[in-house]
Amino acid sequence: MFDDLNIEVGAGEALWVKGRNGAGKTSLLRQLCGLTRPSAGSVLWRGHDIHRKYQASADFHRSLLYLGHANNLKDELTGVENLVLGERLAGRTLDGLGAAEALARVGLSRAAWRPAGRLSQGQRRRIGLARLHVTQRPPLWILDEPFTALDDVAADALHATLEQHLVRGGIVVYTTHQPRSLAAARSHVLDLSARAAGQPQPC
What is the pTM of this model? Predict the structure, then answer.
């Protein structure tokens, strides 16, 4: 599906992966995150194959924040508890106060201590996005449809957060069906639909 794909994204740069539904955007992001292995070729982080050595893999996952298309929340846990658990699973520490502050940044102060199962889809999405505001911000953000289920105000706030991360030298790889290009030191666009049709790719 991704024959002859060769792209390098550096500090302060963004990669927008585009394509129709079923074009393989989520599959590509999962390979970039190390959740699945490419059938050929490799994914490199700081010059090392993320699948070859344990130390390279560990360094990569400490440097990664991945938000999938699904919210992956436990309905019986509150927003704070979900956020603390998510960071712990990623190998980072976060206490309840830090989680509540991050949730406040995405407009969930009142809902922070409510079970996730009682929240709207937009509120559930914002719990995941609150991870972008925790103290230990990893440099690489890979985000699958982060603007889904957000109203205009929340989407604009997220857009600003992503651009601030790029200004700080972070990297953003993302998919979205919305016309949401990011201001970056360099912006890459990978259109999987156009690629499948043999059309030239803009960068």
Answer: 0.89
Please report, for the chain, the start and end positions of each structural domain, with discontinuous segments joined by +. Answer: 1-63+139-203, 73-136
Q: Quick one: what percent of the chain has pLDDT higher than 70?
A: 95
DSSP codes, the chain: --TT------TTEEEEEE--TTSSHHHHHHHHTTSS--SSS--EETTEETTT-HHHHHHHHHTEEEE-SS----TTSBHHHHHHHHHHHTT----HHHHHHHHHHTT-TTTTTSBGGGS-HHHHHHHHHGGGGSSS--SEEEEESTTTT--HHHHHHHHHHHHHHHHTT-EEEEE-SS------SEEEEEEHHHHHTT-----
Fold of 1-63+139-203: Rossmann fold (3.40.50)
Decide if pLDDT at 76 tops 80.
yes
